[in-house]
Amino acid sequence: MRDFFGPGGVLEQRLEDYEYRPSQVRMAEAVHRALEEQSHVIIEAGTGTGKTLAYLLPALLHGRRILVSTGTKTLQDQIFYKDIPLLESVIGRPIRAAYLKGRNNYLCRLKLETLHAEGLFSSRELRRFQSILDWAQETETGDRAELGSVGEDSDLWARMDARRDRCLGTKCKDYDRCFLTLMRQKAMEADIVVVNHHLFFADLAIRKSDVAAILPDYSAVIFDEAHDLEDVATEYFGFHISNYRLAEFIHDARKLEADVEVVSQASEKFFNGFALLREGRHPVGRLDGIDSLIGALQEARHSIKQKKDFSGEYETLARRAGELESELEVFRSGDLENYVSWIERRDRGVFLEACPIDVSGMLAERLFTRVPTCVLTSATLTVGDSFDYVRARVGFNEGRELSLATEFDVRKQALLYIPPGMPDYRHPCYLDRAAEEIRAILRASHGRAFVLFTSYRQMETMFQTLSGDLPYPCMVQGKAGGKSRLLEEFKMTPNAVLFATASFWQGVDVKGEALSAVIIDKLPFQVPTDPLVAARSARIQREGGNPFAQYHVPNAILRLKQGLGRLLRSTTDRGILAVLDNRISTKPYGRLFMESLPDYEVTDSVEKLVEFMDNKLPS
Ligand code: SF4
C-alpha cells in the first residue's frame, strides 16, 4: 500500500495553499489506509482538529465514489460549499461532487402541475404559489432552500414536495426531468456525494426492495458526527403510524376518487380511542378497532387494484395502503422480535411507534459487512479512553481506531466550574441554589451564555425565575421561532443568554465572544421510564449486564461532552463551562465523566471565574 503523504506517496508534493497539521496528517493517513485496505476505521477527532479536510483529501484522491454523511445540514453545507472548493484549489483540479438532501426538500413537478390545474388556494397561498411557479421554470435543482422565506410555508410546500409516499417513480410522465432523477444522475457522475444521516438511513432502510432509493452505489461511506448513528438508525428501522399519516392517505385517495370511506370511518374510530391519552409516551395497551382498520385498508387496496385504469397514481396508492396494513400488523401482533412499541400523544397527533431495541445487528449486517469501507468520526465517541460503548451500540465490530485530542489549548481557553456544596438536584432548595450560581456565572461572563437543561419544565422554571432580574437579554427555546432563527438572534444580540434544551446540546456553532459560557444544569441521563430506554436497559439486564454502567452512564457522558463542546469552536474562543449537578463530584461514576472530558482546568471558586474572564488569553 502506498503511503498517503511523503516521498512516493499519493501526495508526494507538499500542498501549496494548505498546510496539514500533524493530527490531520494522522487522520488523513488512517482514512487512506482504510480506503486502500477496504477496512473500517473509527476516529475520535477533538474539536479544532480540522477533521473534515483530513478525511476529504484521501477520499477525493481515492478515485472511487464515496459518500460523506453528516448529522446536520450545517455541516453538509460547510463541506459542499466551503471545504470541497478549498480542496479543489489546493489539489489544482475540479472535483466532481454532488449534494443530496432528503426527498421532501425537492419540488415534485407532477404535484405542482396538479395543484396548478386545481387552483385551490387561499389568497396568501396564491401569491406564494405564483412565486414557486415562476421559480420552477428556472431552477436547476428544485431545492426549496433556493426559495428563501417562500419555501418556509411548510403547509403549502408539503403539498408539492417529492416525498416517496406519493411518487410514481419510473411511471411518472415527468420522470426524466424530475429533480430527483437529475440529482441522482449528478450523484452517479460524482466522486464525492454529500448526504446526511437521515437521507442515508432512509435509503438504506428501503434499499434493494424499492425503486425509490435515491443514492447511487458507493464503495465507501464516511460518517461525520457519527455519535448520532444509533438514534438515526433507530428511527429509520422503526415503524411509525399516526392519525396524520392515515389522514394524508385518505385525502390523496379521495382526490383520485378511490373509495376509502370505510377506511376513513375505521381510522376515525381507531384514533378516537386515544382521545383521553395524556401528552407523552405510553405503553401500547388494547388497540380497539385495529382489526377493522386493517380490514378496511385491505378492502380499499383490492378495490383500487380493480380500477380499470390501474397504474401510476393508483399503484402508488395501493402500495401505500399495503404498507399501512403491514405496519399496523406489527402493532396488532405485538411480537416483533427486538422491537419495543409505544403510543405517543403530541398535540392533536397520535403516534404508534415501534423501534428496534438494538440496532447493532442490523447495522453490522446491512452496513458494515456490505460496504467495504466505513469511516466513523466525531468529536465525541470515547468514554474514558475507550470506543467500546459506541462500537457495541452500532455493531462496529471490526476496524481500527484512532483518537486525536483537541487542537485547542483547553487549559488556557476554558475553565470548568463545579460549584461547591450544591444540594442534590431533587432537593427542594436546588432550584434557588442553581439560580444563584447561574447569576454569579453570568456576571463573570457578562451574559453571553447558553444555559442548557435536560427537560423543558426545568428550562421554563429557570427562565421564569431568572429572566426578570438578569441585566442581559434573555431568550428561551420555543418562544421566538425555530432553532436557526433563535440562534441568529442570539448571535446578533450583545450579551444574550439563551435557555435551551436537547436540540442545542449538539450541532450548534457559535464562534467568538457571543458564547462565553455554557452552563449545564443536570448530567444528561436519559429518562429511564422512556419505553425505548427502558427496553434497552432491560435487554442489557437480561443478558447479565449492568444497564447503568454499560448504557446510562456512557450515554450521558457522550451527551455531556457534546454540550460542553459548544463553548470552544476556534483557537481564539475562551470561556466558562459549568456543571451544576453535584453528582459529577459526589458519585463514584462522576470520575468517569471527568476522565472523559478534555483536560479542562477545574475550579470551585466564582472569584476565579471573574479573574479568568477579565484576563486576556495568554499568547
Ligand atoms: S418522479 Fe415522483 S417526485 Fe418526480 S415528478 Fe414524478 S411523481 Fe414527482
How would you characterize this protein structure?
With 619 residues, the protein is of the alpha/beta class. It folds into four domains: 22-96 and 190-233 and 359-404, Rossmann fold; 107-174, no CATH class; 239-356, Orthogonal Bundle (Fumarase C, Chain B, domain 1), CATH 1.10.275; 410-614, P-loop containing nucleotide triphosphate hydrolases (Rossmann fold, 3-Layer(aba) Sandwich). The protein contains 24 helices and 18 strands. The strands form three sheets. It has a seven-stranded parallel β-sheet with strand order 3-4-2-5-10-1-11, with helices on both faces. Strand 8 and strand 9 (349-356) form a beta hairpin. Helix 11 packs antiparallel against helix 12 (290-306) and helix 12 packs antiparallel against helix 13 (313-333). The chain is globular. The chain starts with 21 loop residues before the first helix and ends in a 5-residue tail after the last helix. The structure holds iron/sulfur cluster. Iron/sulfur cluster binds at residues 108-110, 162, 167-168, 172, 174-175, 178, 180.
Sheet/helix structural class? alpha/beta
List segments where confidence is low: pLDDT < 50 over at least 5 consecutive residues: none
Instruction: Give the radius of gyration.
Output: 26 Å
Q: According to CATH, what is the class of the largest domain?
A: Alpha Beta
Ligands in the model, by name, code or SMILES, are:
iron/sulfur cluster
Shape: globular
Described by strand count, sense and barrel closure, the largest sheet is:
7 strands, parallel
Number of helices: 24
Strand content: 5-15%
- Give average pLDDT, whole number: 91
First and last CA, distance: 42 Å
Major sheet strand order: 3-4-2-5-10-1-11
State the CATH topology of the largest domain. Rossmann fold
The CATH architecture classification of the largest domain is 3-Layer(aba) Sandwich
